[in-house]
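Predict the structure of Alkylhydroperoxidase.
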Amino acid sequence: MSGNSDYKDLTAAVSVQMRAMRASQPDLMTTFGQLAAAGTRDGALTRKTRELVALGIAIACRCDDCIGFHVQTLVKLGTTRAELEDVLGTAVYMGGGPSMMYATHALRAFEEFLP
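Done. Here is the predicted structure for Alkylhydroperoxidase.
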């Protein structure tokens, strides 16, 4: 993602394309939505904790779209900058230098999504 990109615009654009896919691939998108709901609901771990884990994976996998959506949700769930930075540190530990670069993307997304 270039330095000029905006995570609010990115997530909005991806959402438009996902709606288009929902029209052409309803079974796939319904199943994916169910998977996302099952993977992020409260259980032994809270939804916020599960979203933090998902963000760490998104950073390690270098998925800007995923970073945008998980950070957006984390802001809605009241995640603090300190909590976010702890996850970023773990993602960098597991993913090395490339994850360091994407951790900075997550920080930028966090700042963009803050109210």
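Helices lie at 7-24, 26-40, 47-61, 64-76, 81-113.
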